[in-house]
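Q: Convert this sequence to structure tokens.
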Amino acid sequence: MALGAKVYAKHCADCHGANGAADKSIPDLRYSTLLRSISDWNSVVLDGMRAAHGLPSDAGELAAMCGRDPSWATECGRI
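A:
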């Protein structure tokens, strides 16, 4: 969870808000249907499914963080 929070703060919070509560111009993550499916979430966050809409994949950043800090190994299984 710490890894995800760090990446969210760096890459997502500026637009989606610190707690996922965005203004009306972009999706409010608190109500996102993507939160109901890990495969849907991964396709956006890791696979870049919405890169054409300005939401690039964070897989590279996550993989780099996993490689630098072994304590995150349990959070890095998918990457």
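Residues 2-11 form the longest helix (10 residues).
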